Amino acid sequence: MKMNLLAACLCVLVISCLPIIECKRELPPFLKVCHRNDPQLNQCIKSSLLDLRPHLANGIPALKVSSLHPLLITRLDISTNDVKLYYTNFTLGPMEQFEINDISADFDKCQILLDFSYPKEQVGQGQYHINGQLLLFHLDSEGWVDVNFTDVRFNAKINCKKIIKNEQEYADFQDIDMKVKIGDFHLNMTDLFKDDPELTRNTVVVFNENSKSLLEEFEGPVSAAIGQIVLQAVQRVFSSFPLDILVPP
Ligand SMILES: *[C@@H]1O[C@H](CO)[C@@H](O)[C@H](O)[C@H]1NC(C)=O
Ligand SMILES: *[C@@H]1O[C@H](CO)[C@@H](O)[C@H](O)[C@H]1NC(C)=O
Ligand SMILES: *[C@@H]1O[C@H](CO)[C@@H](O)[C@H](O)[C@H]1NC(C)=O
């Protein structure tokens, strides 16, 4: 009895000291592991990621990946020079329903290239906060936004550096070059003009009619913001396990 208690305490101690004492953790059994020297590495990663989609829907705690069905983004800032615009508690999904047009990983160069697309409409909802000039409107408001995106596609180049942690080699991902292309959107917003629902409705119509030019205006900030989300997700995965476990030789 005493021994068990002691063992339990030790265990708690070890787990709570994770950054200092590296526990032996295991990859989830459903993850198909690819070998970094496999000539078919890219094909292997592609099929491994495609197989992972149903698990990505719910999130994969062992890899510190949160649910993508939908993905909760606590704050998404897409401000431009003309307008401060950010979303809070924004959900977007089904983000796990991607197709992979291309993927290439090189662990000598420490670089991953991704080309993903979303044939399914992506549905976003949350609070918006806007202050500044958008099209012809001067806006200073916040409210609810409901937006559907079609033909979402992204290209990313993510660079890493190999580092040694606890005598094991890890890939430390440091920067991302991301381009997000959105085919079109359709949105609805509340409270753009607090006391004027009619003007709010008409403004929303104008936004939807000008979706293409708005997409152009926000392409840079959207790419940067989504890039950071992807980079952080990749960082969490690759900081959880050494390279020799994630992509053994
Ligand atoms: C986001 O949602 C959480 C939980 O529902 C809530 O506590 C928080 O205040 C919300 N944040 C904003 C900025 O709406
Ligand atoms: C988004 O699409 C859903 C159905 O997928 C629909 O119910 C909703 O009204 C659409 N929202 C907007 C703002 O177009
Ligand atoms: C937009 O949202 C308002 C408020 O929730 C709602 O009354 C209206 O029906 C919505 N319009 C569309 C086109 O979805």
TrEMBL record:
Gene3D superfamilies for the chain: Haemolymph juvenile hormone binding protein
Sequence intervals crossing the membrane: none
GO cellular component: extracellular space
UniProt keyword terms in alphabetical order: Biological rhythms, Signal
InterPro entries associated with the record: Haemolymph_juvenile_hormone-bd (IPR010562), To_sf (IPR038606)
GO biological process: circadian rhythm
UniProt superkingdom: Eukaryota
Position of the signal peptide: 1-23
Keyword Glycoprotein: no
Entry's family note: Belongs to the TO family.
Record-given protein name: Hemolymph juvenile hormone-binding protein
Organism of this sequence: Oryctes borbonicus
